Amino acid sequence: MSTELLVAETSTSALLTGDAASSRRSRRRPGGAPQTAGGRIRLAIRHVVMYAAALIFMIPLIYAFFSALKPNGEMFSMPPSLFGSEIKWSNFAEVFEYGPFWTYIGNSLLVAVLGTLVVLVVSTTAGYAFGRLRWKGRDLVFVAFLATLMVPAEVLVIPMFQVMQWFQWVNTYQALILPFAFGAFGTFLMRQFFRGIPFELEEAARVDGAGPVRTFLRIILPLSKSAVAVLAVFTFLSFWNSYLWPLIVTVDYDTLGTLPIGLATFSGLTGTRWDLQMAAAIISMIPTTLLVIILQKHLVKGIAMAGLGGR
Amino acid sequence: MTAIPATRRRGSLTKAEGRQALGFASPALVGLALFTVVPVVLSIVMSFFDWPTFGDRAFNGGANYARLFANGEFAEALRNTLVFTILYVPVSIVLSLLLALGLGPRIRGRGALRVLYFIPVVTPMVANVLVWKMLLQPQGLFNGLAQTWFGVQLPNFLADPAWAMIMVVVMSVWQGLGYNMLIFSAALEQLPEAVIEAARIDGARGLRMTWSVVVPMISPSIFFATIMTMITSLQVFVQPQLLTGGGPGTATQPLVMWIYNQGFKFQDLGLAAAGAWILFALIIIVTGVQFAAQKKWVHYEH
């Protein structure tokens, strides 16, 4: 694996907000707008196909949403219908009476926020040491660092559980937060970004007498807001959605369960209450969906940075 | 990439910088040692021991590895994982590539459409699985519509061994589609326009342009997406765990679920660790084969 895989590529930030990018593009590229009648028809057909595909793709979520509003008895009525005999918004409230749902949400929030903070601190400081400072053995240590990316989490969870037992951390918050907060990926991402910052900026500060700590805090970090934001979003999402590790390391799901665990136990508890299960599923989708809509530009930037390694 | 010139900053300054670098890097190094290096070493050790969750441990040579294959269930889990990967990866890559190509610059509202495809990627997988479980019930939407509209009784998707695996694949494709689509979209946006223009002047249009010019040019991204998708699909766990419970019987139980069950249901951590190493070996081999094969179809601009 090359250590120069990632290039901080920011030109794709307008990707998701297609309109601005496409108008710029069509001005640059001749033939951006179809000239002939045949071209216009083909473009219209393409629109129909793409929107039909999107609708088909969304059917599960749309149907789930409407199912969450049905009385439970009409969940599987024949023929299937979007609406039940009444619209029961109360299902959404009942979810919170049925299980400790606020606890699950609170736990997920706590674990994801603290986990993200740890990852950000560790990744930016280590990224700075590997990307901007000169020290003996740096590149060797970095390669060893990267090699740990190859080990899948599934190999780690078995011994990690044993380590948690030795620490007597089973069924604690620190066990939910710390073990997977030190992965090499964040450091790798930040290092790559830091290396793209012109060295002259740092040199000037050094000449003025600022040490590494000051240049890191005053120059490098402020210039890296977008990369930090990207890492924060992806880390938050991965903590928020993680399932296997919380399933293993927590025992008392009623007090320490995170949202995915809560949702899974909830579906076991409620058994046949599909209306509540759908309402719970929809509720758990809201925060992440909002996050994606609000942070769409950063997300794409993150994928361009982290995902385009092969280029 | 900016390299630090070798002549810059020498001597005592470098030494001071080295000490400070150690300070900056130490949280990461300590954390990684504690939570990755120690577990990896421990895992190798465990795989050679009888290692119950509680109670006495005993070295047993390579007995765990021998036990893996004496018991048919591990081989079946291995097969299920491979079947899932072989079905999932091509479908997922082709569909997301088609979507990325389709959502080209001339489609209005493509930004919103892309967000839409990305929603299941970030939604808790448990929620996605719950939704699909409801749809796939014998009285659920799919069978309901088939009966109402066509009078056809669909199979009981989650109770039939063959269909259960197909539905795990279908659900996984649906939830993961948006990620690769965005990777391909980002690659498509960065195509050098001069090359496209040259191909257009040479008469390349439509499908031919797509297949002979565009796809080869984004082949590094396709390669990367294929590798990552394959690695994650060899590690599949949540979808079968919650959609089918690995069933009916053990028809959809993949390796990670087998590892989880051995370790945390049957409390046999040594056997589970041995199974995890076989999975790791499998991932390394598959990835290695892909890297070896890339020369044949991946085009880099050098």
From TrEMBL, chain A:
Q: Which SUPFAM superfamilies match?
A: MetI-like
- What are the UniProt keywords, alphabetically? Cell membrane, Membrane, Transmembrane, Transmembrane helix, Transport
Start and end residues of each ABC transmembrane type-1 domain: 105-295
Topologically, how does it sit relative to the membrane? Multi-pass membrane protein
Q: Which residues cross the membrane?
A: 48-69, 101-128, 140-161, 173-194, 215-240, 276-295
Q: What InterPro entries does the annotation carry?
A: MetI-like, MetI-like_sf
What is the first-listed, main subcellular location in coarse terms?
membrane
Region listing for Disordered, in residue ranges: 18-37
Keyword Glycosyltransferase assigned: no
Can you say where in the cell this protein is located? Cell membrane
Similarity comment: family membership: Belongs to the binding-protein-dependent transport system permease family.
Protein name in the entry? Carbohydrate ABC transporter permease
From TrEMBL, chain B:
PROSITE patterns tied to this protein: ABC_TM1
**What Pfam families does the database record attribute to this sequence?**
BPD_transp_1
Q: Predominant location of this chain?
A: membrane
Residues forming the ABC transmembrane type-1 domain are: 78-290
Q: Where in the cell is it found?
A: Cell membrane
Which Gene3D superfamilies does this one have? MetI-like
Q: Tell me the leader sequence span.
A: none
Q: How does it sit in the membrane?
A: Multi-pass membrane protein
Query: Which UniProt keywords are given for this protein, alphabetically ordered?
Result: Cell membrane, Membrane, Transmembrane, Transmembrane helix, Transport
Q: Where are the transmembrane segments?
A: 21-49, 82-103, 115-135, 162-188, 209-231, 269-293
Similarity section: Belongs to the binding-protein-dependent transport system permease family.
Q: What is this protein called?
A: Sugar ABC transporter permease
Q: What is the lineage of its organism?
A: Bacteria, Bacillati, Actinomycetota, Actinomycetes, Micrococcales
